[in-house]
Structures are given as C-alpha cells and as structure tokens.
Amino acid sequence: MMQRGVRSRRTLLERESELATVDEALGELTGLRPDGAEPHGRPRGALLAVAGRPGIGKTTLLAEVRRRAAARGCTVLAARGGDQEQRVAFHVARQLLQPQFAG
Predict the structure, then answer these.
(1) Is 36 domain-assigned?
(2) Alpha helices (H) along the chain
(3) How many domains does the chain have?
(4) If pLDDT is split at 50, 70 and 90, which confidence band does 103 have?
C-alpha cells in the first residue's frame, strides 16, 4: 500500500541513449563525471530539449533528469506550462523564480 503523498519511482525502459545524453549534459554543466568523483573539465552550460507525442514517457524522463541533477548538487527548478499559460507573459518563468525570491 502506498502512503499518501509518497510517489513511487517509475522505471525507465529503453532510455539508455537519452540517459547517456543527460549524463553528458550534466557533466558539461557541473564539470563532474556521472559518479561525481573526478573532475570532467571546466563547467559549461548545456541545454536539453524533450519533445514527443503524449504517453511516451517525457514526464518520467524529466523526473529522472531532475533526480540526477539534484544528486550532482544542481539547484533544480520545475514549472508546468499549458495552453492557458501561453497567454500570460513570462508565466512559467514566474513559476520558477517567485519562490526563489520570496524566501
């Protein structure tokens, strides 16, 4: 039985290529190897784009990206956008930044 407020971690199937790309991008961002032990080089920025049709596991993949980034010491911010938010200027940016400045 699952406790209220506790989410189970979904298993990613056949996502080795995507996760390797994630680890590479996080290495570029942090300057660390996936194990976090050895320097990988000078930290640089990176961008990942996740796109696809509904139901293929984008949300689960992004949850794993957030988990891996947090494990490497990255500050992880998350927001959701939809049709309604497209009409409000910078709505998603505000979702991300307001809590950071409010505290």
Answers:
(1) yes
(2) 16-30, 58-71, 91-102
(3) 2
(4) low
